[in-house]
Amino acid sequence: MKIKVLFFAKLREVFETNQLVITFTESDNKVSDVLTALRHKEGVWAEELNENKSFRIAVNQEMVAEDVVVNDGDEVALFPPVTGG
Amino acid sequence: MKIKVLFFAKLREVFETNQLVITFTESDNKVSDVLTALRHKEGVWAEELNENKSFRIAVNQEMVAEDVVVNDGDEVALFPPVTGG
Amino acid sequence: MSVRVQTEDFDVSQEMLVLRQKNPKVGAVASFVGVVRDLNDGDEVSALTLEHYPGMTERSLEEIVSEAKSRWNIYDALIIHRVGTLLPLDQIVLVLVTSAHRGESFKACEFLMDYLKTRAPFWKKEQTSSGERWVDARTTDSVAAMRWETTDDE
Amino acid sequence: MSVRVQTEDFDVSQEMLVLRQKNPKVGAVASFVGVVRDLNDGDEVSALTLEHYPGMTERSLEEIVSEAKSRWNIYDALIIHRVGTLLPLDQIVLVLVTSAHRGESFKACEFLMDYLKTRAPFWKKEQTSSGERWVDARTTDSVAAMRWETTDDE
Fold first, then answer.
1. Entry pTM
2. Are strands B75-79 and C39-40 parallel, antiparallel or unpaired?
3. A84, part of any domain
4. Poorest-confidence range of B40-44, C20-24, D60-64, D99-103?
């Protein structure tokens, strides 16, 4: 299954991309598996997505926690705490 | 001593005047003496300024209580609770 | 001049611009506009006449603004209150407050309205389907003003 | 349409008129405007760039408006948030709320700002004298949003 992952603001800049696609061979994955896959890219990826960093996760444009299940075709987004208004 | 008394809104309408002057022969008067003098006019005066009616008092354009002293030339105003805004 | 009593209408955008234009430290502008409703206490209202106490009105509004400035860390405040005859949908009152951050301007704006409602000498007379009548003061307004008398929540 | 994300500026008076013009039951209009400050965290700010998450932004703002409507007896609400590059003194955000009486519109307006600040996907990048930097989220904003999570004070 394929999961599209979007990055915004500082994460977009540090990762030098605004999106990528992760392919899982098995089904039954969670947001935490997406994070694990990204951390395996090491360097800035492991650094910015470290558990002690504060970032937010959205699945299909709703903010969620790491234990939420992701399905084929889902749009996951990772971004810093919001600062609008 | 002379005290000018102004009336606003419903009190102005009921009393059919927007102001009058009260002359006290002795000095050392309070707002309560102004009210007593007006109540002696009886009719609507006694009725509208009855103690169970709710009205407000200002002396020289500051809201005050009945026990405030009034001096020669003071401007006293009597009006209903305010309803602006 | 932070207080105006006038018969003319006002333009909120314009007043906002004037209040903050010289101050690039302003990050927040809270405002309130009171409007004439076509219904009050169950009766249709066709017009409203606002009477005031010239002199005392401006003075009491200025006192209220001073008090807001002493209580909260705000840059500026403006109160415009109309008098004379107004129709449903007409603007009656404008309160504007500028500050660096939003919390202060929200609190000061609500405080100004609550104090104005109980302390500034304005009186409303309604023209309704059942004749003219003076509007009665609301207990809810006294209650709203009273909460600012208690210990400051700053 | 109660939510707009746009690069263009907005006119508060005009938006107010549109929001309430068809409803003579409106007696109260509370509003908030956020403005670009020329100073933040001790540094001079020469410009601000606002990035957002198209799609999710509109959706989250609409959810916030729906929640305000379910919590308070208000008639309508509008949120306009600008994106792109803005300069000091520029307007960033507008929140407008209409209701019959002022208490509801004040509360809903402050609630909308507090929730927007913590839930709507916008990010600010500042151009300062010491270079570009992403603005950090403020703890005070999380605290402000949290008070609406507790038991309703209605």
1. 0.94
2. unpaired
3. no
4. C20-24
